[in-house]
Amino acid sequence: MKKKKFLNGNRVDSIVTHIVLIAVCLVFLFPVLWLVLSSFSKSGSIYDIEGFFPDTLSFGSYKNLFTDTTMYDYPNWLMNTLFVAVFSSLIGTVLVILTAYTISRFEFKSRKLLMKSTLVLSMFPSFMGMTAVYLIMVNFGLINQLWSLILIYAAGAPMGYLVQKGYFDTISNTIYEAARVDGATNFRIFTRITLPLSKPIIVYTALTQFAWPWSDFILPNMLLKNKDLWTVAVGLTHLDETQFTRFAAGSVFIAVPIVILYFALSKFLVAGVSEGAVKG
Amino acid sequence: MEQKRGLLKSSFPVKASMVIMGTGQLLQKQWIKGILYLTCFVSYIVYLALTGVEDIIGFFTLGTVKGDAWLGIEGDDSIMMLLKGLLAFVITAFFVGIHKSNINDAHRSDIKVKQGSVLPKFSKACGIFFDKKFYIIALAVPVVGVLIFNILPIVFMILISFTNYGGDVVPPELVDWIGFDNFGKVLALSEIKDTFFKILAWNLVWALISTLVNYFGGLGLALLLNKKCVKGKAFWRAFPVLAYAVPGFITLLGFKFMFSYGGPINYYITMSGGSAIGFLDIDAGLTAKLIGILVNAWISVPTSMLLATGILSNMNKDLYDAASIDGASKWKQFTKITLPFVIFSTTPVLITSFVGNFNNFGIFYFLRGGLYNEGYFLASDTDLLINWLYNLSIDNNYYGIGAAISLIIFIITSIFSLLTYVRSGAYKKEDTYR
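ok -> structure tokens follow
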């Protein structure tokens, strides 16, 4: 008797838990589902959709996105975004890996100072210097240039070196010492030993460095005034209610790769987030 | 100490190097090195003669000749002069660094010669340097990049906050140093002062509420997922992660559409006989604030859920068993074991997330950007300081005042950041696990 009651209590608890869980998951799913289904709506304006979800589905918005480009040149935005994201990712990854490896591996005079100052610097929100960056860019005529965006993204990347440093810290020192004894130079050690050992962290870095410019809005909105140079994020903010399904389709199109990427990286996510916690 | 003694007793080549870079190396028959140092020296002198001195003077005067298009006078561009002056200081500091290395190098070679060893050839010396000082080569580009794109802007912004740049005073008008006037305006001049304190108050309330909502939302969700009866945790976790993965600006614009006049919520309101509500209109401050907090929770709860999950998985399970044996209730276990542990290990995050929310630019920029309320100086009642800063400096060219405000935000945030820094001890602990 007693045992059964205990089981019942557990069951009630389990049912309540699952009801709450389903509710929470619906809260997270619903807006996304709404946007995805809206992107398949037949009409373009938000006023024509009755309620949350369209009655009939079509690929019209996606077709419009890539063919009707006179007003809103989505393919061009996409190419600009891709260009900026790919090159920022390439350069940024090299810089982050170099910084993290060097700080993890070498003892030198200004190492502590360097670590302290990046820690303090990274505590200041990046937006603070943004207006100054804007003014400097305006004065040197670097506004309306895609590569000035790339420079800013890539140059800021080494500030977030801590996750990578943590990875390099786990590589045992004995390997390096053995190589040193064999007469390998530091450069050779880096290219022949470190790099092959750190493929996972390089992939992780490259992807996160890619995701940031891919979905950033503030910087491109500030620096790209020319319509031909807009990235997807800037372009999408210029779509009003009558262009709602175009917005939905455009959003889904660039969100899908990022979402896939996050799920692929999900085992890194917890580690990355808690690392960020220490970093601040 | 050693350096000083060395300098006093230094030989002629070292002394020569002190006066003219590179000559010492030439005297020591280190031809290529000597020529390189000498070239540096000459280029610096030439730079000084051509623009350097002028730039440094310009930094202090910020221009004396006002441009006039009618008379065809090309005036001074104060902001360019400020930047060039800054550059001159950086170049000078760089030069001093090279000069130091030049003296050290001459000194080292001197010692080697005295010990009777042969000085290495230039190519070999390069090779040795590249290997021994690999960290310098590796860090050069990242450090220079951070200097130019992170530190220089901050310095520039600090300088701008002490000028009257902005408003009507933009080139060709001459900009001047005005000391602390901008700060005085923000903290004392009626219209700007009122706006500042109103926004600051809301900003603090916003940061506090949204941090608490996100934090406890995430913790609750993590605890829920952590329950024994929940099967398929990865499946359930996928939903918040989905929300986490969607780029922020898409989420924000999506919600803006959802609450817009033509949006689905207003559709149902009009269908059931009501009239459409402008949730984010200029006079809808309170609903807009509420929506802001909820939308922010939608975006940030998944992050704190992931964080709390990580922390909970590190927890010692024995404590619970012991507590159960002692007859502690579930609730008691939660308040006496789980909560203290989680809060203790997340205090730094709590503070950084407070700072992050304090400076959360996106939320109200996307939901309600470009609205100016009455009684506010170029801001709306939902704007945070960072939004106001953007309105002032990017949209309305009030650069000086904007810079002063960002400096004030800097100070407020740095107080919180400092708290984190002291509390976390992350940097003290580093290396212990190596």
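Residues 36 and 252 of chain A are 6 Å apart (CA to CA).
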